[in-house]
């Protein structure tokens, strides 16, 4: 077993941008075990832990820097003993090569490569696919380690992102498709404590990282959008104070919720339509500065895909994640509608 690399873990990760063959282990003076399984993959195991297994991932998209800064701070705070985890926690810095060039991805959008999508499509091999496959292996190793498998444990995965556009709700979470299983009040409360009281319910299986956690491991997995894409150094980190405090609390105290669930505390949206780009000639019918969650009137033209014209089908239909530059066949736009939280199937 090699030594855990000294110095800042994010810097080590950036130096080995497509991964490194390593299995390093170290025990901190406070008894916490640190293991490095790869560049960007670090696992902390306390001596005595709560029954929580927590995964915090960032940089699935390399230019979404605020979550990377948060993860960097948390990792170093644990390594110096400033934060003492009481749960098993794995941090993943998913796409360091894209981070190094300040781009969403190098060759292919990594957040469309999970649940085995990395290995589908004849002849399609690239390093993002290889990395996504490796990340799946690390998730499996983490959630199915002998310790994790020995007792019932709560699994939480926050895959942290930032959005390309401004947003009427600065922070929001995508609750992946649950295939008929109920949504969790406790998880909504934990998200709200993290300053994320806005939830977008996805309506079907996807190839995102968070859906992979939900579907493969029955984890409480979420894509968590924390504001807007900005280069390193340009994030106003004061806007993430509540989010960081809650993550620190999760790490040091476990998944405690304050008080009881109040449906009116949440803004919930459900997906109406996922509009894919199928033609080179694809355009959005609104400017780049139109924010996520902007609503349209019934009949407004939202997008054109070759000869197909997409119009708002309902009054107040709102747009999320519009991106006309996605690869052919991929999602270029979601439309959503608000629903009351107390209409959800909640446990
Ligand atoms: O702002 C945008 O257009 C994209 C922000 C982003 O990366 N969002 C994720 C959402 C994943 C999900 O639906 O769970 C993505 O598009 O991969
Ligand atoms: Zn993203």
Automatic annotation (TrEMBL):
It catalyses: N-succinyl-L-glutamate + H2O = L-glutamate + succinate. This is Succinylglutamate desuccinylase. SUPFAM superfamilies: Zn-dependent exopeptidases. The active site is at 225. Pathway: Amino-acid degradation; L-arginine degradation via AST pathway; L-glutamate and succinate from L-arginine: step 5/5. It comes from Aliidiomarina sanyensis. Residues 53-251 form the Succinylglutamate desuccinylase/Aspartoacylase catalytic domain. GO terms for molecular function: hydrolase activity, acting on ester bonds; succinylglutamate desuccinylase activity; zinc ion binding.
């Amino acid at each position: 077993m090699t030594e855990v690399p000294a110095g800042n873990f994010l810097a080590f990760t950036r130096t080995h941008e497509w991964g490194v063959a390593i299995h390093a282990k170290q025990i901190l003076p406070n008894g916490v075990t640190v293991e490095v399984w790869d560049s960007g993959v670090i696992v902390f195991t306390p001596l005595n832990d709560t029954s929580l297994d927590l995964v915090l991932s960032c940089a699935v998209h390399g230019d979404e820097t605020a979550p990377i800064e948060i993860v960097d701070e948390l990792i170093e705070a644990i390594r110096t003993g400033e934060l003492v985890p009481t749960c098993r926690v794995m941090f993943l810095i998913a796409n360091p090569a894209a981070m190094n060039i300040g781009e969403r991805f190098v060759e292919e959008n990594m957040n469309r490569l999970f649940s085995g999508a990395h290995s589908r499509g004849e002849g399609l091999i690239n390093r993002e696919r290889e990395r996504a496959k490796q990340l799946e292996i690390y998730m499996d190793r983490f959630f199915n380690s002998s310790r994790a498998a020995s007792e019932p444990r709560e699994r939480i995965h926050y895959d942290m992102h930032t959005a390309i556009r401004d947003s009427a709700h600065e922070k929001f979470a995508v609750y992946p498709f649950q295939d008929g299983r109920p949504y969790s009040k406790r998880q909504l409360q934990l998200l709200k404590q993290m300053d994320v009281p806005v939830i977008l319910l996805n309506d079907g299986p996807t190839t995102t990282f968070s859906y992979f956690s939900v579907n493969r491991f029955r984890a409480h997995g979420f894509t968590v959008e924390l504001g807007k894409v900005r280069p390193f150094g340009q994030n106003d980190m004061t806007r993430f104070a509540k989010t960081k405090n809650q993550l620190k609390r999760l790490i040091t105290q476990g998944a405690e919720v304050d008080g009881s669930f109040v449906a009116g505390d949440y803004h919930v949206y459900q997906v109406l339509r996922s509009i894919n780009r199928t033609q080179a000639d694809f355009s959005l019918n609104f400017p780049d500065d139109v924010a996520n969650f902007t609503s349209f009137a019934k009949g407004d033209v939202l997008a054109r895909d070759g000869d197909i014209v997409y119009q708002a089908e309902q009054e107040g239909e709102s747009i999320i994640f519009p991106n006309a530059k996605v690869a052919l066949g991929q999602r270029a736009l979601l439309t959503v509608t608000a629903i009351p939280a107390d209409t959800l199937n909640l446990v």
